[in-house]
C-alpha cells in the first residue's frame, strides 16, 4: 500500500514534506545525521512522514551508519548541514560510492537569496561560491541536484531517488533554507515511485542468452562465482533460480560473502586467488566455464590480483554490460539476462562431469591443546558461534581477512568495506545495520568483529 502519511488529498505540500514522504515510500524508516542551523527547520517535518530521527555523534559516523543501514534495508538517507557538516561525511560517502551503496545525502544550505547576494555566511569559504561543496560531492555521487525551482522540485526528488536505487550509489540533494516550506504540488505522491530498471533490448538479450546457453551446454566443469555487485545490484534471487536448475558448484569471493547459502550442497567455498584453500583454488582455476556474477577484481578481493582464471573461459555479468570471453555487450543489465537464463536452461542438455563435493575443513574442528588464542584457531571456531540470519560486520584489518576462515550459517548477511577500507567504518555501520533489521521487523543479531585500534 502506498504510504502518504498525514498528507491525504492535499493538492500542495511543502518541499520537506514531499521529500520525506518519498523517503518513507521507498522503505526508509530512520534517517541518520547531525542537526545544523541550515537543516533544523527541515528536521521538524520528519515525524510527519513517519520517519525516525537518529542523531549521531558526528557526520562521519552518520555516514557510516547510513552505509550499514542501506546494506541491510536496501537504501538509506542522511542529513547534514552545508560545508562543515557535509565535508565531515564525505569520506563515508566516498566509500559508499566505491562499494555501490545507495545513500540519499540531504544537505541543508543557505537560502537562495543569500547565495544570489554572495553573502559572507558562516560555514562557507568566504568567496561567495556556495556550490564548491556540491562540486566536491559530484565526484562521489551518481546524481546531484539543487532544489531551487518549485516547478521542478518534485520531479528532481523523484529522479534522484530513482537514480540512487538503480545505480546503487549515493545521491546528493541540496536543500536551501527558504525552499524547505515552499509549497509544491503533491500529485506525484499518489503514484508509487518507479524503481524498476529499464528492460534490456529483447533481441540483444535473447542473443546473449543463446550464446551463454551454448557455452553452458558444452562445458564439462562449469562453476558460478558470486561477487559483491551481485549483492549490491540485487540479483541474488535470479542466481538462486539459476543454480537450483543447473546444480553446478557455486563459489563466493571475499566481498561476495552472504551472496549464497554456505550450507547449500552446491557451495564450493571462498575463492580469492592465492588466498583460497588449495582444493577450492584448483576447482575454480581448472573450470572450463566460469559464470562470474558482479565481479570487483580489486587488490584485496583477489589477494593482490592473484586470480589465475582464463578470460576466454569467463562470462562476466555486470549491471551495465555482459562480457562473454573477449566479446562485450554494452547496455545490457545482468538481472534480465540471469532471469532469462534460469527460465530457458534445459538441465538435460548439460554435459557436466560431476566431481566429489568439496567440504570446507575448519581447523577449529581439531582440538588444540595450546592455551593461546591464535588467529588460526579463532576464526574457524567462530563458525560454531554464528546462527542463521546473523549480520556479521568485519572491520578493516585482521577481521576482514580472518573471516575468510569462518563458515557462515544459512541467511547470514556479511558486511565489510574491503575495497574502500576506512578504519572505523564498522562501528557506525553496525549501528545502522542493527537499526535496519529492527526497522524491517526482523529479530537478528548484529555481530561486530573489530580491533581496538579502530574502536
TrEMBL record:
<keyword id="KW-0670">Pyruvate</keyword>
<dbReference type="InterPro" id="IPR047213">
    <property type="entry name" value="TPP_PYR_PDC_IPDC-like"/>
</dbReference>
<keyword id="KW-0460">Magnesium</keyword>
<dbReference type="InterPro" id="IPR029061">
    <property type="entry name" value="THDP-binding"/>
</dbReference>
<keyword id="KW-0786">Thiamine pyrophosphate</keyword>
<keyword id="KW-0456">Lyase</keyword>
<protein>
    <submittedName>
        <fullName>Pyruvate decarboxylase</fullName>
    </submittedName>
</protein>
<dbReference type="InterPro" id="IPR012001">
    <property type="entry name" value="Thiamin_PyroP_enz_TPP-bd_dom"/>
</dbReference>
<keyword id="KW-0210">Decarboxylase</keyword>
<dbReference type="Pfam" id="PF00205">
    <property type="entry name" value="TPP_enzyme_M"/>
</dbReference>
<dbReference type="GO" id="GO:0004737">
    <property type="term" value="F:pyruvate decarboxylase activity"/>
</dbReference>
<keyword id="KW-0479">Metal-binding</keyword>
<dbReference type="GO" id="GO:0000949">
    <property type="term" value="P:aromatic amino acid family catabolic process to alcohol via Ehrlich pathway"/>
</dbReference>
<dbReference type="InterPro" id="IPR029035">
    <property type="entry name" value="DHS-like_NAD/FAD-binding_dom"/>
</dbReference>
<dbReference type="GO" id="GO:0000287">
    <property type="term" value="F:magnesium ion binding"/>
</dbReference>
<dbReference type="GO" id="GO:0030976">
    <property type="term" value="F:thiamine pyrophosphate binding"/>
</dbReference>
<feature type="domain" description="Thiamine pyrophosphate enzyme N-terminal TPP-binding">
    <location>
        <begin position="14"/>
        <end position="120"/>
    </location>
</feature>
<dbReference type="InterPro" id="IPR012110">
    <property type="entry name" value="PDC/IPDC-like"/>
</dbReference>
<feature type="domain" description="Thiamine pyrophosphate enzyme central">
    <location>
        <begin position="210"/>
        <end position="341"/>
    </location>
</feature>
<dbReference type="InterPro" id="IPR012000">
    <property type="entry name" value="Thiamin_PyroP_enz_cen_dom"/>
</dbReference>
<dbReference type="GO" id="GO:0005634">
    <property type="term" value="C:nucleus"/>
</dbReference>
<dbReference type="GO" id="GO:0005829">
    <property type="term" value="C:cytosol"/>
</dbReference>
<dbReference type="Pfam" id="PF02776">
    <property type="entry name" value="TPP_enzyme_N"/>
</dbReference>
<comment type="similarity">
    <text>Belongs to the TPP enzyme family.</text>
</comment>
Amino acid at each position: 500500500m502506498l504510504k502518504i502519511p498525514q498528507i491525504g488529498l492535499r493538492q500542495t505540500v511543502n518541499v520537506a514534506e514531499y521529500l520525506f514522504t518519498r523517503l518513507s515510500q521507498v522503505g526508509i524508516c530512520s534517517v541518520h545525521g547531525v542537526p545544523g542551523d541550515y537543516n533544523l527547520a527541515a528536521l521538524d517535518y520528519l515525524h510527519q512522514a513517519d520517519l525516525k530521527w537518529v542523531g549521531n555523534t558526528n557526520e562521519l559516523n552518520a555516514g557510516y551508519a547510513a552505509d550499514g543501514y542501506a546494506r541491510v534495508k536496501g537504501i538509506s538517507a542522511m542529513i547534514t548541514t552545508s560545508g562543515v557538516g557535509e565535508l565531515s561525511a564525505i569520506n563515508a560517502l566516498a566509500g559508499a560510492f566505491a562499494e555501490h551503496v545507495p545513500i540519499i545525502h540531504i544537505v541543508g544550505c543557505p537560502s537562495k537569496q543569500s547565495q544570489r547576494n554572495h553573502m559572507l555566511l558562516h560555514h562557507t569559504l568566504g568567496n561567495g561560491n556556495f556550490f564548491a561543496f556540491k562540486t566536491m560531492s559530484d565526484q562521489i555521487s551518481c546524481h546531484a541536484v539543487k532544489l531551487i525551482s518549485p516547478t521542478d522540485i518534485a520531479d528532481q526528488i523523484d529522479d534522484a531517488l530513482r537514480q540512487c536505487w538503480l545505480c546503487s550509489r549515493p545521491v546528493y540533494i541540496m536543500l536551501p533554507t527558504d525552499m524547505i516550506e515552499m509549497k509544491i504540488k503533491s500529485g506525484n505522491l499518489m503514484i508509487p515511485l518507479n524503481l524498476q530498471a529499464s528492460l534490456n533490448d529483447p533481441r540483444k538479450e535473447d542473443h546473449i542468452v543463446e550464446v551463454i546457453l551454448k557455452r553452458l551446454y558444452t562445458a564439462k566443469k562449469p562453476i558460478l562465482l558470486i561477487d559483491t555487485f551481485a549483492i549490491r545490484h540485487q540479483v541474488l534471487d535470479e542466481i538462486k533460480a539459476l543454480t537450483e536448475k543447473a546444480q553446478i558448484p557455486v563459489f563466493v569471493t571475499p566481498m561476495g560473502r552472504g551472496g549464497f547459502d554456505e550450507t547449500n550442497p552446491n557451495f564450493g567455498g571462498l575463492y580469492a586467488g592465492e588466498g583460497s584453500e588449495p582444493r577450492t583454488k584448483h576447482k575454480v582455476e581448472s573450470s572450463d566455464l566460469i559464470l562470474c556474477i558482479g565481479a570487483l577484481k580489486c587488490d584485496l578481493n583477489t589477494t593482490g590480483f592473484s586470480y589465475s582464471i582464463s578470460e576466454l573461459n569467463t562470462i562476466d555479468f555486470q549491471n551495465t554490460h555482459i562480457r562473454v570471453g573477449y566479446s562485450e555487450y554494452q547496455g545490457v543489465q545482468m538481472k534480465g539476462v540471469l532471469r532469462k537464463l534460469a527460465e530457458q536452461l534445459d538441465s538435460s542438455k548439460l554435459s557436466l562431469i560431476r566431481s566429489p563435493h568439496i567440504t570446507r575443513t575448519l581447523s577449529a574442528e581439531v582440538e588444540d591443546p595450546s592455551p593461546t588464542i591464535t588467529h588460526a584457531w579463532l576464526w574457524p571456531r567462530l563458525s560454531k558461534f554464528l546462527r542463521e540470519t546473523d549480520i556479521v560486520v568485519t572491520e578493516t584489518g585482521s577481521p576482514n581477512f580472518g573471516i575468510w576462515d569462518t563458515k557462515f550459517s544459512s541467511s547470514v548477511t556479511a558486511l565489510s568495506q574491503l575495497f574502500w577500507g576506512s578504519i572505523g567504518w564498522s562501528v557506525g555501520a553496525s549501528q545502522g545495520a542493527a537499526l535496519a533489521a529492527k526497522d524491517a521487523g526482523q529479530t537478528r543479531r548484529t555481530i561486530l568483529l573489530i580491533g581496538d585500534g579502530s574502536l
